[in-house]
């Protein structure tokens, strides 16, 4: 009879609420937007400003545990909530994952290897960083970037003005990594420190947005799986993380290069709904509620998850007619270019 509070009203919150319902939990969503797709599945919704203490206190009083579906929720309100009700993942996971400078430093401390990088807060520092790191490089905003937004590529130092104009500071300049494939480790850690992770998908991006995740991964990724999973485990332990933690990697000739982390369920883990013994959403709920974690094994010969972005969801009548295709539409009222409207998972048994 417990109630899970979810900060954020997008599709990830909706899928957490759905998994929570399967396990007998009620969910209460706190979302700033007028349109919360999570509210379609959750038991109740508060439409609110995260900074309103009256609203936060009311929310805290109605829930037994709090989680979040996106990492750009303001740290202040989360810390305030954490003093009143357990919040998983904890404020430390959130603070590190919200800030690319903190994130890269933290990962280096536990023995991980991001691309060569340097923090940049002024136009002069950008020149110094280009001199140190070289080109090609990517300039990324320190905070609030997602789906490739908030980053600019520099093919040569002459792109510095345009990149600074587009991104500004505070930012991070990082070397462009030569990789054969991208992959992710979706890991779940329980309140008692127990950990398990999923087999890694091969993640293909288009225009900075995840296009497809495929399993089993090709050998270039399979060879780097153990090292990347071990690093993700050290990150989770060092954060005392509870819930799902996702780390993105580049498979390079010198082994896995850390790209970034998300302190939450992840788009590259959507395949687990039909393709794994326990979905990432069910395992996240198990972790934050103190239940034993479920089996993360692949249950099919092959699984491919493809995002439906912009107007691609309009193909749904064909997709729903395909055998072995599992359609998920998120119920968003308006489609825009680059907006994730749904996904489809194709399973080969
Ligand atoms: P999201 O959080 O939605 O995954 P994001 O906006 O935080 O995306 P990143 O993951 O940093 O963005 O970058 C998006 C994509 O851009 C990566 O998946 C990769 O394809 C490419 N990319 C980013 N940084 C680099 C790099 N240093 N070298 C090569 N490719 C990169
Ligand atoms: Mg990101
Ligand atoms: Mg990313």
Please characterize this protein's 3D structure.
Helix content is 30%, strand content 29%. The chain is of the alpha+beta class and 349 residues long. The chain folds into 3 domains: 85 residues, 3-Layer(aba) Sandwich (Rossmann fold), CATH 3.40.50.20; 60 residues, Dna Ligase, domain 1, CATH 3.30.1490; 168 residues, 2-Layer Sandwich (D-amino Acid Aminotransferase, Chain A, domain 1), CATH 3.30.470.20. Strands 9, 10, 11, 12, 13, 14, 15, 16 and 17 form a 9-stranded antiparallel beta sheet that branches. It has a 4-stranded parallel beta sheet with strand order 3-2-1-4, with helices on both faces. A 4-stranded antiparallel beta sheet has the order 5-8-6-7, sandwiched between helices. α1 packs across α11. The longest helix has 15 residues. It is globular. The model has no long low-confidence stretch (mean pLDDT 97). The site of one magnesium ion has 3 residues, from β14. Adenosine-5'-triphosphate binds next to β6 and β14. GO terms for molecular function: 5-(carboxyamino)imidazole ribonucleotide synthase activity. Pathway: Purine metabolism; IMP biosynthesis via de novo pathway; 5-amino-1-(5-phospho-D-ribosyl)imidazole-4-carboxylate from 5-amino-1-(5-phospho-D-ribosyl)imidazole (N5-CAIR route): step 1/2. It catalyses: 5-amino-1-(5-phospho-beta-D-ribosyl)imidazole + hydrogencarbonate + ATP = 5-carboxyamino-1-(5-phospho-D-ribosyl)imidazole + ADP + phosphate + 2 H(+). Homodimer.
């Amino acid at each position: 009879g417990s109630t899970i509070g979810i900060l954020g009203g997008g599709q990830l919150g909706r899928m957490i609420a759905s998994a929570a319902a399967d396990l007998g939990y009620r969910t209460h969503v706190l979302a700033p937007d007028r349109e919360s797709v999570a509210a379609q599945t959750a038991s109740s919704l508060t439409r609110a400003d995260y900074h309103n203490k009256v609203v936060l206190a009311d929310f805290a009083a109605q829930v037994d545990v709090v989680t979040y579906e996106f990492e750009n929720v303001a740290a202040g309100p989360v810390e305030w909530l954490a003093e009143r009700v357990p919040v998983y993942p904890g404020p430390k996971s959130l603070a590190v994952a919200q800030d690319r400078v903190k994130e890269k430093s933290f990962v280096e401390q536990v023995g991980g290897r991001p691309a060569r990088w340097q923090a940049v807060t002024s136009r002069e520092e950008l020149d110094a960083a280009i001199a140190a790191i070289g080109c090609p490089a990517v300039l990324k905003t320190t905070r609030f970037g997602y789906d490739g937004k908030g980053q600019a590529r520099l093919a040569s130092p002459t792109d510095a003005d345009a990149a600074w104009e587009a991104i500004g500071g505070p930012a991070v300049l990082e070397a462009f990594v030569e990789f054969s494939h991208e992959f992710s480790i979706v890991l779940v850690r329980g309140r008692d420190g127990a950990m398990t992770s999923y087999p890694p998908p091969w993640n293909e991006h288009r225009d900075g947005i995840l296009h497809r995740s495929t399993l089993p991964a090709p050998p270039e990724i399979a060879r780097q799986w153990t090292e990347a999973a071990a690093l993700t485990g050290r990150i989770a332990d060092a954060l005392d993380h509870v819930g799902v933690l996702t780390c993105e990697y580049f498979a390079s000739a010198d082994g896995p290069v850390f790209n970034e982390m998300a302190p939450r369920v992840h788009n590259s883990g959507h395949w687990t709904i039909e393709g794994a013994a326990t979905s990432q959403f069910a395992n996240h709920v198990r972790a934050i509620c103190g239940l034993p974690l479920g089996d993360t094994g692949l249950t099919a010969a092959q699984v491919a998850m493809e995002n439906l972005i912009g107007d691609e969801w309009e193909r749904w009548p064909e997709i729903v007619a395909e055998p072995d295709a599992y359609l998920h539409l998120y119920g968003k009222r308006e489609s825009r270019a680059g907006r994730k409207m749904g996904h489809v998972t194709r399973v080969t048994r």
